[in-house]
């Protein structure tokens, strides 16, 4: 037994046993060099706590109590700092979300009453949430309420005709809540459309050879001009047509501001088809991939939303129908307009859940391999613009590319391709025990996370997932392009050795002789002329 | 996720799209209690749901006193009738790795995997086809044990190892604080430790033998295969695995509430390195 502190020399009269006792006690009183507490105080505290609380099976949790006691003694100083940091993010988010729950109080009561009468484009999200819950898909109710209020604030701030909760896409750092909207006719904000057009013009001007008269660069003839003409970019579809039929707003959390996603371009869709990436949750994050994705995460997100909508938005047969008045069909292009069928009476649930899938149709246009919904012919542009001789060669090259075709609008699901070895869709009933009141649910196998339900006259689609397509094989990135060949070697660019000084001297001498001979000839001619 | 309070706990995983319909919740509450009683389990967990093409499987696990050893897995299609799954052997796991694609939903379905081999030499080479047959039940069992092995996690300190090498719930676990919960090193794989030996002596000196007997998920390869997000400000923490998409772990910081559940197709995400 060692003693850390000097103890007073015991009296000679103290017995041996008491000496041992005092030694033991002073040993127990030794303060630890690490923490400054000693075992005697610690044990008395622990035993005091046990006697106060009298927990069950105390001998089993004795070590834990001892640890806790040590911990509380030790960390008393830092508590204020810890407590301060704990709640701040939660409070901040709660305050942001509280705004959702307060009505806009500027206008007063009259306007509020008016708003209730006017038809609002806001969907009855709670009803849809109930149906989704029966089907076992979707988000929990509190979250749906928050999303609903966020959609309401979106409706209040923008002139919208239709609003739909499209779904939720998970990201690695944050998630996206997506709303699909349609602006009211004529009310669309046009400012943002000009920007992408300007960007496109700049890009076009940079390309060689496609614009006449705009190139003011003085070409130097030293280096050989490359023959490569980049293929013309497929122009994006106009707003409200094809893949850009709807506009999309996203936010990271209900209560945070909604951000409008840009229009999607065909090259973005074709690139998105070739890569497989998780979304991070930040709209300005770069998408690092091969082949390089033209744009940042907001463009990638928009492209995935376009693909998912085109692939998985379905409705019961007969809910939508083609407008019978519009009979103009452009050659080769399918119809792209439909209207709601007022006489739709609903299909019985049993038929909707039938595995043959004959009662569901797609109501979003399929996206062609080109990246657009309507085929754009790249060759036809060339014929109009070019008159240079150089471009005549190009006219011979491509034969008329065959127009790409896809399934027509309102095509039934029976025509969907199989995924792997299984059908593209899995139908189900929401309740096996009470089929009279169950609803029909259908899950997509091609885009896991895409679901749809239908019940009497109501139906809805939603997507909740990571935004990735399902492939039964592994993903392999496309191979890099073949190595570019060098310029074919010919005599013009083959290096030869410089002439040696002797050769140069010989050449100079020969040139001198030739020059002298020429001068003599000229002098001789002049003399003849003078003579004449 | 524990079956007590299932209908409340499933709400915590709701923001990841995991929902049970009211009918399923009611059925599970009834049948899991019966399951626990019949098999004398200490605890019953709802493990999750594996989505098949035609039908889905609900999976439950029952555990005895020692959490590591002796878990039994049950599956059900309607949440009422539970069937015992055979424990996964190494051979079953190897064969199941050959079966690709989704589960069909029919437990007696047999996957066929055909491999052609060349037997003989030179001109006499003959293509021999080897067909391995994998039963869906076996595949289900192997996938479940693989998921448990790969991504099943618990917060640090939730379980302790008693000197008799049993692993039991830590009754004085009070939850991770918000800062601790934000760090990946505070979550551990709920399995026998594989990487403890690789730690340096210095790290091992700081570890607590009773708590740190499992691997932390911080060192999982590839980095970034866990997505950690705070919902409700810092009121709820969700950890999603990107390696097995559909596995969700939730924890309410500073409380004892935590749990995990898997709702997915039962396929590993092989393309994870490309996607990060």
TrEMBL record, chain A:
PANTHER family assigned to the protein according to its UniProt record, in alphabetical order: RADIAL SPOKE HEAD 6 HOMOLOG A, RADIAL SPOKEHEAD-RELATED
Name of the featured protein: Radial spoke head protein 4-like protein a
Organism, as annotated: Plakobranchus ocellatus
High-level lineage: Eukaryota, Metazoa, Spiralia, Lophotrochozoa, Mollusca
Region (Disordered): 183-247, 383-408, 475-532
Cytoplasm in keyword set: yes
Superkingdom of source: Eukaryota
Pfam families registered for this protein in UniProt: Radial_spoke (PF04712)
Listed transmembrane segments: none
From TrEMBL, chain B:
Any Pfam family the entry gives: Radial_spoke
Protein name stated in the entry: Radial spoke head protein 9 homolog
Keyword Cytoplasm: yes
Family recorded in the similarity comment: Belongs to the flagellar radial spoke RSP9 family.
Domain of life according to the entry: Eukaryota
GO BP annotation list: axoneme assembly; cilium movement involved in cell motility; motile cilium assembly
Keyword line: Cell projection, Cilium, Cilium biogenesis/degradation, Cytoplasm, Cytoskeleton, Flagellum
InterPro entries named among the record's database cross-references: Radial_spoke (IPR006802), RSP9 (IPR055316)
Main localization of the protein described in the UniProt heading: other
Source organism of the structure: Plakobranchus ocellatus
Cleavable signal peptide: none
UniProt-annotated location(s): Cell projection, Kinocilium; Cytoplasm, Cytoskeleton, Flagellum axoneme
Gene Ontology CC annotation, any one: radial spoke
